[in-house]
Design a protein that fits this description.
This protein has about 70 residues and is mainly alpha-helical. The chain has a domain at about 40-60. It is built from four helices and no strands. α3 crosses α4 (about 40-65). The longest helix is centred in the last third of the chain and has 24 residues, at about 40-65.
């Protein structure tokens, strides 16, 4: 809980509405990378949204893979 509490307020707000159960460590990693690039808060949050969309799309493709019965 301390890791979550230490996050910046905008990032904590974003995590509360995120579709995936992000860990504070993962979210902070992307947030810091965005800050290092000089991105604004809105741009950092957009980067997190894109990462989440990418993960959801990857998971959806994995679910659609046909399951071959073993013989």
């Amino acid at each position: 809980m301390q890791a979550y509490d230490a996050l910046p307020t905008p990032l904590r707000r974003w995590l509360c509405q995120a579709a995936l159960p992000w860990s504070p460590v993962s979210a902070r990693k992307i947030w810091r990378r965005a800050q290092a690039k000089g991105l604004s808060t809105d741009e950092a949050l957009a980067l997190l949204r894109r990462a989440e969309i990418h993960t959801l799309a990857r998971d959806k493709r994995a679910i659609r893979q046909p399951i071959h019965p073993t013989e």
